[in-house]
Amino acid sequence: MTVIELDKRLVQDSYPVTELSLCQLRLMDDSRFPWLVLIPRRNGVSEIFDLDEADQQRLWHEATQVGRMLKTLAKGDKLNIASLGNVVSQLHVHVVVRRRDDAAWPAPVWGHGEAEPYDLDGLASMRDHLLAQLEALKLR
After folding, report:
1. pTM for this predicted structure
2. Distance (Å) of CA 39 to CA 76, 88, 92, 112
């Protein structure tokens, strides 16, 4: 398994959940939105096209499978998958479930209000739910 150094902003804004075949899966520390981040374990990568074709396919597979799982788990109305990188250039893919009644609907979640960090119980509960669902999908 390739070890990479994560951008400090990814570390401070999210919690590790597990390692998938290509990506480290992290939970964004904002309990207002079901929001995960996939970070490919490849050094020096800032764009999807920097990955070889097999890794591009693996990234898309992991993002869509994680997204489907999270949308079902969170009973969401819409799934958003995005790779922006304007602030953090290290390649990472956001997987965000949106609900019509969420704090930012229908606008993007970025820059909307103040993040509401998970408390320890909420974090542990969310991580346990995610790991159980990922195990069922055989993504771990």
Report:
1. 0.94
2. 23, 11, 5, 23
